[in-house]
From TrEMBL:
<keyword id="KW-0411">Iron-sulfur</keyword>
<dbReference type="InterPro" id="IPR007197">
    <property type="entry name" value="rSAM"/>
</dbReference>
<keyword id="KW-0963">Cytoplasm</keyword>
<feature type="domain" description="Radical SAM core">
    <location>
        <begin position="24"/>
        <end position="267"/>
    </location>
</feature>
<dbReference type="InterPro" id="IPR004559">
    <property type="entry name" value="HemW-like"/>
</dbReference>
<comment type="similarity">
    <text>Belongs to the anaerobic coproporphyrinogen-III oxidase family. HemW subfamily.</text>
</comment>
<keyword id="KW-0143">Chaperone</keyword>
<keyword id="KW-0004">4Fe-4S</keyword>
<keyword id="KW-0408">Iron</keyword>
<keyword id="KW-0479">Metal-binding</keyword>
<keyword id="KW-0349">Heme</keyword>
<protein>
    <recommendedName>
        <fullName>Heme chaperone HemW</fullName>
    </recommendedName>
</protein>
<keyword id="KW-0949">S-adenosyl-L-methionine</keyword>
<dbReference type="InterPro" id="IPR034505">
    <property type="entry name" value="Coproporphyrinogen-III_oxidase"/>
</dbReference>
<dbReference type="InterPro" id="IPR058240">
    <property type="entry name" value="rSAM_sf"/>
</dbReference>
<comment type="function">
    <text>Probably acts as a heme chaperone, transferring heme to an unknown acceptor. Binds one molecule of heme per monomer, possibly covalently. Binds 1 [4Fe-4S] cluster. The cluster is coordinated with 3 cysteines and an exchangeable S-adenosyl-L-methionine.</text>
</comment>
<dbReference type="Pfam" id="PF04055">
    <property type="entry name" value="Radical_SAM"/>
</dbReference>
Amino acid sequence: MASALPLGEPAPADGLLPASAADGAQHRAFGVYLHVPFCRVRCGYCDFNTYTSDELRGARQSDYAGQAISEVRMSRRMLEASGVPSRPVQTVFFGGGTPTLLPASDLVAMLGSVRDEFGLAEGAEVTTEANPDSVGPEDLVQLAAGGFTRVSFGMQSAVPHVLAALDRTHDPERVPLVVGWARDAGLDVSLDLIYGTPGESLDDWQRSVEHAIAQRPDHLSAYALIVEEGTKLARQIRRGELATPSDDLEADMYELADDLLAGAGFEWYEVSNWATDASHRSRHNLGYWRGDDWWGVGPGAHSHVGGVRWWNAKHPSAYAERVSAGISPAVGREVLDAPTREIERVLLLTRIREGIAVESLHAGGRHAVAGLIADELVDAKAALSGELVLTRKGRLLADAVVRRLLDGSTVS
């Protein structure tokens, strides 16, 4: 079962935002995230808000595109009524779940609704996630013709026993095929990998990274496996059927990936993300890390505009009922206070290559910088130039760096 929604105050049925959400909006980028909550099978490690066919309880995949389009139309009206200035959409991201379980025509129609309601900025980045076994060449051609610019394939591993431990269903040999089809369609390509799977060796991981690099993607993400409570994987580990992933091995895996990727011409730009150059960084995800605005469409989707965060009803049937009734699908929200916004700003900006301006830190945070340099957690040259940028050691200990920057701060 997917993870629970956060606690917060009830969201208003009319979806209106407090006046503060409009402050400075014209200076923030605006993106749209469309959540497609369907999967063919549930992976053992996944706690995302996703549903297989036998978990839908009356909701139908065939109805979903129309429901999402209704929310997109609703979102424009709600933002206008809240006084938030209209802005063309800089980035659109279809995530899930497996968006490409829907027909390509549905995804194109959903993108079309974003274009119709808000307009797409020139050169907008439009991404869909896909599993290697969920698309064919015709689908990718149709997506590219409909305005998609980028596809992110959930490769996860090139090693069959690792894929089996993750309950992934694709054959590793399909990855070169789908990458080639995406290239032929004119799409940029990103590959997602997971490391630290129980039973995965350092040699297994090296094989996966090298296989990914051999496909010459524009972008690669490598995420450490997180064992979430309530998942099949957590239960297997608790019963002793699988070993708990080793922190030391995961650190070795990260360093190996960073070395291999750097040697292949990739540069890190966020703790878990690398790109061949700045033009191929995920601009949508950078919007999250930089605190920009985005509207999240779909069951359980989260949105953020001007320090107001809200989230939709989780189950597709509950979401459909609210949208069909013409009321906001949001069920909860929080208005972030200044201390919380500062904590999140430090937490997120320290993760990216550009870093965070030292002078923007509170006094305690500025005082902590010297110790972070001495411990080789931040780049000394960058810090002397006024930017706090993580070293590779710092990337491995990013959470600890953030705690030290905040522990001595005057945030209150």
